[in-house]
Amino acid sequence: MAVVTDAVAVAIQIGATNAIKKHKRKTTMVQITPCIRCGKNRIISKTWTEKIGESKVVRTDTVCPDPECQKIVEEQLQVRNDRMRQVQEQSLKRRANFRRKKVDIVLK
Ligand SMILES: [Zn+2]
Fold first, then answer.
1. pTM here?
2. Ligand 1 centroid vs 73 CA: distance in angstroms?
3. Do 55 and 71 fall within a single domain?
4. Contact status, residue 61 vs residue 44, Cβ threshold 8 Å
5. What is the 42 CA–ligand 1 centroid distance (Å)?
6. Residue 23 CA from chain centroid, whole number
């Protein structure tokens, strides 16, 4: 718990320091979500800044505090991403077939 709070404070501080330095509008995005598997507050593993248009955004990568659980969550995410990619590919193929049929009709 204490670790999570400190990490958030640090991330916010980084954003605040950047804002003072650059005198530009900055957005700090720190989102702590509970682990989808065990419900523990996820901890920040990585903090980096991304430039989106004119504003810099602090991005964070969070992981489950339980390494074993994080591994399982990542595997589940991987499976879900693979399935989503398959569905996307199938619908693209279907669209391509549809287009081809249309062309055939036009040619006749
Ligand atoms: Zn977990």
1. 0.48
2. 7
3. no
4. yes
5. 7
6. 28
